[in-house]
Write a structure and sequence with these properties.
Layout: H1 7-21, H2 27-37, H3 46-56, E1 62-65, E2 71-76, E3 83-89, E4 94-100, E5 106-111, E6 122-128, E7 131-138, E8 155-157, H4 163-168, E9 176-179, E10 184-185, E11 191-194, H5 197-215, E12 221-227, H6 235-244, E13 248-255, E14 277-282, H7 290-302, E15 307-311, H8 319-323, E16 331-337, E17 346-349, H9 350-366, H10 369-375
Parallel strand pairs: 3-12, 3-13, 13-16, 14-15
Antiparallel strand pairs: 1-2, 2-12, 4-5, 4-9, 6-7, 6-9, 7-8, 10-11, 11-17, 14-16
Helix pairs in contact: 2-3, 2-5, 3-5, 5-9
Bound molecules: zinc ion.
The site of zinc ion has 7 residues, from helix 5 and strand 13.
């Protein structure tokens, strides 16, 4: 007699398998997943901007855009006190299509700094006018184990026979390309894996702060901005700062950690994953406003908010153009540490997210006309 497995047992097995690979996410994890997975390389930020605005809309008084695609959200306080800008950038690193060769292989151009060794064997999505096209980024078979392959020797294989077939999918030069990389909560629940933490985690922090500000009183105008094109030209911060005209600014970004296995330590990096918000002491683009940095540092000490420091020798963020606006804007870069900088699969720590949200909420709560007056320079009496 032939035995068959009852369908309900198959269904049970399938749902058990499903549960094994799908995760129950809390509200913050769901929000971070949406931000991380939204495709939005420099110049093509709109999907990320839409997710950001969806979360901001119920939390702010007004949502504006600038002409390059930047988002400006306004949350009024109990007084029209200092104009406080909190900035993160919408764009992620990625690529754009350069050309398609006669065999249908897609050559690409980087948007933002991409480390060649991290690119090979990645699945990528080309966003065409006809919809997304899956491909794999790779190179030829004769690669020496330790050799870094130049980008010119790489291509994206979309699985077609020739250029005409690739073009029929809608692929054309300048189409944006993102990594195919799904968000995941790792084995210790606080470790979050995903693409584009640079700088979607900054957008996530802004959303967390504005959620807190629904319950808290503040005597200032908060301008939360999502800027465009940070990874290529810092252009978006130049336009948003013009629109906001801030008295003071906090910029959010990510930076590297120094808690990896041997031979990878970097002299200038001190932060460790999970040990708190990082106060930047220097980048090639900006020295943070000393009085503001000291004030924020004392606040973190007073409230026992975990914090760390980073003296970055190179690099730069939106803080560069923002602090140079008009007569100068007291600006501080607060960042979240990320393992695997500018990669398709970065790891951040939930505690760092929480301490950054908490510190910025407290900064906003305490900033009023008097505190600002103590931070700015005065003429001789
Ligand atoms: Zn960034």
């Amino acid at each position: 007699m032939k035995k068959t497995i009852p369908t309900f047992i198959i269904a049970l097995l399938l749902s058990a398998l499903n549960a094994l690979f799908s995760q129950d996410l809390d509200d913050t994890e769901k929000m971070l997943q949406e931000l991380s997975e939204a495709p939005g390389v420099s110049g093509y930020e709109e999907p990320a901007a839409q997710v950001f605005m969806k979360y901001l809309k119920p939390l702010v008084d007004e949502l504006q855009r600038d002409n390059l695609g930047g988002v400006i959200a306004i949350k009024k306080g109990t007084a029209d006190g200092p104009r406080v800008m909190i900035d993160a950038h919408l764009d992620e690193i990625g690529f754009m299509v350069k050309r398609i060769d006669e065999n249908g292989f897609v050559k690409f151009f980087p948007l933002g700094w991409n480390f060649s060794q991290q690119l090979l064997d990645h699945r990528v999505i080309i966003h065409t006018r006809q919809g997304p096209v899956l491909g794999v980024l790779n190179t030829g078979p004769d690669i020496a184990e330790d050799k870094i392959i130049p980008r010119a020797d790489m291509w994206i294989d979309v699985g077609v026979e020739n250029r005409a077939e690739a073009e029929a999918l809608g692929i054309q030069p300048a189409d944006p390309i993102t990594h195919e990389s799904k968000f995941a909560v790792l084995n210790n629940r606080k470790f979050l894996l995903g693409k584009a933490w640079d700088d979607r985690i900054g957008l996530g922090v802004i959303i967390g702060v504005l959620k807190n500000l629904i319950k808290e009183k503040h005597q200032n105008m908060v301008f939360a901005t999502g800027s465009v094109q940070e990874e290529i030209t810092l252009a978006g911060a130049k336009t948003t700062v013009e629109a906001v005209k801030p008295d003071i600014a906090i910029t959010l970004d990510i930076d590297v950690t120094n808690d990896l296995p041997a031979n990878t330590s970097i002299d200038y990096a001190q932060p460790v994953l999970g040990k708190g918000v990082v106060i930047i002491l220097h980048t090639a683009e900006m020295l943070p406003h000393v009085k503001l940095r000291q004030w924020v540092q004392s606040l973190a000490e007073e409230l026992k908010i975990p914090h760390q420091f980073m003296l970055e020798e190179g690099g730069g963020t939106d803080a560069g153009p923002i602090h140079k606006w008009n007569l100068g804007v007291p600006t501080l870069d607060l960042v979240i540490s990320q393992r695997y900088y500018h990669s398709a699969n970065g790891i951040i720590h939930r505690d760092d997210y929480e301490s950054t949200v908490r510190l910025i909420t407290e900064i906003v709560k305490r900033l009023n006309k008097n505190t600002l007056d103590e931070l700015v320079f005065k003429p001789l009496k």
